[in-house]
Specification:
Elements (H helix, E strand, L loop, with lengths): L10 H8 L7 E2 L17 H4 L8 H9 L5 E3 L2 H11 L4 E5 L6 H7 L3 E7 L9 E3 L11 E5 L11 H13 L3 E5 L20 E6 L12 E4 L2 H11 L6 H12 L1 H24 L4 E4 L2 E5 L3 H9 L3 E2 L1 E3 L4 E5 L4 H10 L10
Helix pairs in contact: 3-8, 4-7
Length: about 350
């Protein structure tokens, strides 16, 4: 049975718990670009007509990602729910600390979920450790890798991932790579390798483009799987207005170039700020993460100052998103001296 999974972006929880009005919060609880794509004015047709599933959105997406083809879906979440319905059940490796929707979706469909940790988390108990260059466990048929990982920021190279793809393909399985945070690091992506069986890549417009409300994403995979998923997806899964906005964002190369540079700078600034405050921090251009033995206390201290960050419970840790402007950066910096006496693990 599927269960509710906690996520960032739950500012209403903080408002209810701390009694501070919404406008007084600095919400850093997600890894979404706080300065997302400037949504253009839309034609009335985008609202009045049925969404056109045969428009050029998928071709534009394939070109943007450097993939042979793409299938548009209602966000990565839709793909996560569909994939267990179309793949033969088997043992699947999923990170102990990663995006939380994968394990319950595959477990509910009868897959034997095996948890893994990376070498940076090897002190934690899991079914196996995922080590670059080493063979996967022999019984494993599928492997899910969020790359870079959310929240630990682990990043595997294409060569390492493709070697695992070959192992799994030989067993009649496949590698599933979630590249929701890959847009700032396009050279590390696997889109170009998705024409053949054994590899499924999921992409999202919610993080880099900041278009989380559009609920749009893409599956990059071989044609037979894309066809099967398209039948399961059904018609009109992405609204007309969302299609129009995503299309514009994927075509705006000037905005993409400028935003990559800004996020690389801001991501490094965030990790540096946290490190100077005593956190053992690492990150991607869109968020920073720190293991904290006293994560609950630190989250509470920040919340008391109107700053909301994501806390993970099974691996005590905090994830910080990017402030949207200099006022936010200064507010975060002023809050962090509380952490100089922290205890991390």
């Amino acid at each position: 049975m599927l269960q509710s999974v906690p996520h960032g972006g739950n500012l209403s929880t903080a408002i209810a718990q701390y009694g501070r009005p919404r406008e007084d919060w600095l919400d850093l609880s997600t890894g979404i670009n706080p300065n997302g794509y400037p949504v253009p004015a839309l034609s009335a047709d985008a609202w009045l007509r049925l969404p056109d599933d045969e428009d050029d959105l998928e071709a534009i997406a394939a070109n943007y990602y450097g993939a042979p083809a793409a299938l548009a879906v209602a966000g990565t979440q839709a793909a996560i729910r569909m994939l267990p319905q179309v793949l033969p059940a088997g043992a699947i490796g999923i990170g102990l600390l990663t995006y939380g929707e994968y394990a319950p979706a595959f477990a509910a469909a009868g897959f034997a979920v095996q948890t893994f940790v990376t070498e940076t988390l090897s002190d934690l108990a899991a079914d196996f450790t995922l080590v670059p260059g080493q063979d996967l466990p022999a019984h494993l048929r599928y492997l899910v890798v969020v790359n870079p990982n959310n929240p630990s920021a682990d990043l595997f190279t294409p060569a390492v991932l493709l070697a695992w793809r070959e192992q799994l393909r030989a067993r009649g399985g496949c590698l599933i790579v979630d590249e929701a945070f890959m847009d700032v690091l396009p050279a590390s992506g696997l889109a170009a390798h998705t024409a053949d069986d054994g590899l499924i890549v999921l992409r999202s417009v919610g993080k880099f483009f900041g278009l989380a409300g559009a609920r749009a994403g893409f599956v990059l995979a071989a044609q037979p799987l894309r066809h099967t998923l398209s039948l399961l997806r059904g018609p009109w899964s992405i609204s007309g207005p969302a299609r129009a906005v995503v299309r514009a964002a994927l075509l705006d190369t000037a905005w993409q170039t400028a935003t990559r540079s800004a996020l690389l700078r801001d991501g490094a600034r965030l990790v540096n700020l946290l490190t100077q405050a005593g956190f053992d921090a690492c990150g991607t251009p869109l968020f920073a993460w720190a293991r904290q033995a006293d994560a609950e206390q630190r989250q509470h201290q920040l919340a008391a100052q109107g700053i909301w960050v994501r806390r993970f419970t099974h691996v005590p840790s905090l994830r910080f998103g990017l402030p949207a402007n200099e006022t936010g950066w200064q507010r975060l910096a002023a809050s962090l001296p509380l952490n100089t006496g922290h205890t991390h693990v």
